[in-house]
Structures are given as C-alpha cells and as structure tokens.
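tokens incoming
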C-alpha cells in the first residue's frame, strides 16, 4: 500500500512555497494512505472549469469529462462516446452515440443530450477555440447526432475530440454557466471545487468503460514551479505537472519523465520589409544558428534539436522528405537587424541573448527588443521586427498541424509573423487542409512543411519538452504530449 511520506502537519514545512494553495484536499482522515492520488497542477482554473474554455483540458486530464471522439498516438480519430461515424456528404457527418453510458448525476447519455451539448458550444460567445471560424449545425436523429458544416471540413471528427467539446449532462447547462461538477461521464466524478486552489474527484462506480483503480484524485493548483517540485520531493504530491528545468536536478531522476511537446521554438524572419526580404540573408541567419548550443546551454539538454517545424511529439513527422535546394547564404556584411522576443517564457530572453551572439559572429549587427507578450504581440504581427523568437504550439485542439501552418505561413494567415506570402506555400497548405485524414493528410502536411522551410521565413531551432514528476509509488500515469491525459482509469498508487 502507498503511504505518503509527509506526516500530519507537513503543510507547514512548505507553507511559504505553497502560499495561497493550501494542502491537498482530503475526503477523510485516511486520505493520505487510502490510495487517493494527489496531483499538483501548474495553472489554476481561469473560467470556473468551464469546458468551453482552456479549463476543459483539466477535466480531460482528470478523466472526468469525455468527448464523442478520441485521438490515437498519431492523431487519427477513435471511438469515444460515439462508437462510429460516417461522412454522408462533403459537409455532413453522422455519429452513433454509445449505449449504456450514464452521467455522474444519474441521467442517461442520449443523442438528444449529446446534440444539446454540442449546440450549446456552437452558440456560445465566445466560442470554444476549436470552433473558431467554423460554423456547425447539430441535430439528433434517433441514436445518432448529425453535424453539418457550412464548408467542407475533413477534420470534423478530430474537432469533436477536443476537450472543449466534452459532452456533459443536461443539468450542467442550467443557470447560465456550464458546470462540470457531477455532470461528466468519465471514470472519476468531480465532486468539489475550491475556487482556484483545489478540486476533489471520486471514483465513479457506474462508469461505462474500464473502472478506475484509484478511489479518487485530490488536486492542488500550484502556479509556483519551485513549490510544485517541493511537493514532489516532500511527498505532498504524487504527480506534479511541469517541473521547471531549474528544479529537475534537485529531484530523483527516476521520478521524472521528459515528455516531448508539440511545441517548437522558432525564429520567424520578416520577409516583407527589412534585410530579411533577401533570401540570401535569411539563409545566412539559418546557417548562423547553432541549435545544439541552445539545447545544451539554455535548456540544459532537456529539449530536442529541430529538424523541421514538427517535432518528436508527432512521430510521423520523422518521415519528412530530405531537404534539397536550399538557398545559398549571403555575407551579411554588417546588416542591422532587430531581434525580438518576450519574457513570459523564462527561457526565451536567454535564447535571444545566445542568438544575438551567433548572428553577430556571422556578420549581422543585432539590436534586441524584449517585452512582456501582451506588450509585444501586436508589433510582432504587424511586422515591426526583423526577427522574432516564438515558442509555438504546432498542433491546435484538433491534434492536426495544418491549422497552425496555415495560420502562420499563408498569405491570409492570422498569425503570420514572418509576413510570408508565397504562391507555392499557399498551394501546399491548401492541399494539406483539404486532404482526407490519415496517411494522405500527413504526407500533404509534410509537403507543406517542406515548402515553408524552403523559404527560410521560419527557422525551427528546438522542440520543447515538459517534465512530469511521478512519486515512486505511481503506476500508469499518462505521459501525453497533447496534455489531454494525466490520471486515467489505470492510474494507481502501488
């Protein structure tokens, strides 16, 4: 049996670090040794755990709210609360609802309830991010739900896998706000939320699938990274999200797992104005960057050298075609460039300092601009800088990178920091967006990636990892690059 190493009153030992978070919640006096799993999470809820917001990913990581569709390791859709689906015409999809599923409030999952949840999300203001720019109509027909899109969209099943489109009981939507307390379908029932400090979940014995092995989950929200690491070290937490690199060396190595993230640290070069309108100077910047020194120096070896925009979190990206026909580098000859980034991610200002030296060694003159993200995003998007360092998520809520690439590199892209407008790139991106899911789509995405890289408008430097901490007694916690899973029905304390 697992025993927490922290004795009664041990919260006092880390009180300063855990300021405002308190100790982990407990349902009774035996909570420390009854197999309940204590989790320290990085970000507190921002929207009262509404599934229509980014808080939905917490509900997913606790296995309390579920979706019609799930994703496998390569991002292909798999059955969830829907057992099967079919595309009946270019804009219409029909999903068969699983039988025998009960919500935590005792009501039954039906097509009508599922359709209500999706329709509520589609009409919400603001919409869930996964439906941004997407118009859908939802209708229940017998034991099926029909989803109709305004335009052809091959990603409808992937969209319905987003935690932001979790299916909750009808009672969740009463009272003007969506409440996941006691209204999910997962192996754990959310029974209590204490503001932005804690949450409690109990095993749901009526779960339709594989029953949970742990009796419950006790969650504390601990924004301070040092405090999270201390909670793992002292036994206050069994599972800890996002251990800071600076704290990893203070913990037992066998308690840490580095999970490759679908996030790439990229140097965007302004192709519309300034020195990097010259492809030869963009090539010179590419050749000047020593990726290994960034990984080993700034990230202390806890990152992966980038070979493309997409990294090891997407294993199929390793099948990318060999790069050919790269533009020849031109001598910078003292070309003056502004290099900008932001402070919100602690490593980026240090990355900027290292890059400044590397570019100057290659013959550029560099001026740095570093601000908080809220104060620099507008200037970056309007092309005020010659070069911009960004840590960018390469798959959005659908698990598909085509949307990110279109946003960042198409002529009409809404996040086109590089100001890139290239007919060949746009054609490749359009082909990727319209390709059917599976191998054909993945191949089209890699072709689009090659087209972007050929312009040197974006120079991928490294792929980030997240460090997850598990106490010695934790068995089968999820190590999920998409950060959708953490405690599953199989997770337990030994």
């Amino acid at each position: 049996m697992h025993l927490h190493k922290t004795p009664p009153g041990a919260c006092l030992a880390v009180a300063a670090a855990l300021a405002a978070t308190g100790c982990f919640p407990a349902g009774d006096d035996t909570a420390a040794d009854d197999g309940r799993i204590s989790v320290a999470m990085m970000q507190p809820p921002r929207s009262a755990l509404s599934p229509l917001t980014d808080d939905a990913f917490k509900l997913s990581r606790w296995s309390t709210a579920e979706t019609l569709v799930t994703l496998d390791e390569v991002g292909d859709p798999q059955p969830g609360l829907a057992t099967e689906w079919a595309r009946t015409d270019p804009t219409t999809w029909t999903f068969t609802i699983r039988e025998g599923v009960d919500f935590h409030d005792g009501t039954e999952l039906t097509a009508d309830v599922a359709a209500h949840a999706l329709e509520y999300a589609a009409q919400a203001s603001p919409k869930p991010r996964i439906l941004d720019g997407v118009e859908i109509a939802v209708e229940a027909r017998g034991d099926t739900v029909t989803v109709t899109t305004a335009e052809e969209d091959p990603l409808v099943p992937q969209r319905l896998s987003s935690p932001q489109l979790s299916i909750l009981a009808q009672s969740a939507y009463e009272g003007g706000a969506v409440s996941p307390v006691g209204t999910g379908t997962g192996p754990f029932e959310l029974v209590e939320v204490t503001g932005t400090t804690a949450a409690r979940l109990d095993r749901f014995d009526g779960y339709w699938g594989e029953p949970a092995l742990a009796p419950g989950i006790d969650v504390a929200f601990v924004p301070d990274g040092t405090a999270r690491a201390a909670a793992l070290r002292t036994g206050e937490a069994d599972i800890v999200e996002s251990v800071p690199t600076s704290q990893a060396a203070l913990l037992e190595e066998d308690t840490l797992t580095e999970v490759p993230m679908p996030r790439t640290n990229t140097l965007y070069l302004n192709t519309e104005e300034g020195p990097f309108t010259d492809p030869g100077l963009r090539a010179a910047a590419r050749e000047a960057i020593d990726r290994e020194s960034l990984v080993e120096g700034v990230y202390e070896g806890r990152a992966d050298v980038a070979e493309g925009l997409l990294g090891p979190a997407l294993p199929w990206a390793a099948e990318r075609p060999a790069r050919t026909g790269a533009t020849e580098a031109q001598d910078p000859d003292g070309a003056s460039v502004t290099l900008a980034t932001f402070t919100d991610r602690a490593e980026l200002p240090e990355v900027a300092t290292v890059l400044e030296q590397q570019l100057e060694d290659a013959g550029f003159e560099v001026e740095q601009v570093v601000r908080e993200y809220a104060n620099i995003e507008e200037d970056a998007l309007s092309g005020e800088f010659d070069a911009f360092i960004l840590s960018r998520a390469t798959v959005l809520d659908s698990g598909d990178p085509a949307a990110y690439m279109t946003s960042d590199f198409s002529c009409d892209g809404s996040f086109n920091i590089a100001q890139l407008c290239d007919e060949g790139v746009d054609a490749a991106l359009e082909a990727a967006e319209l390709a059917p899911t599976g191998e054909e789509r993945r191949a089209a995405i890699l072709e689009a990636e090659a087209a972007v890289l050929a312009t040197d408008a974006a120079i991928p430097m490294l792929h980030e990892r997240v460090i997850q901490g598990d106490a010695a007694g934790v068995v089968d916690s999820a190590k999920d690059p998409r950060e959708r899973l953490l405690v599953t029905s199989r997770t337990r304390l030994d």
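note: Residues 69-173 form a domain with the Dipeptide-binding Protein; domain 1 fold (CATH 3.90.76.10).
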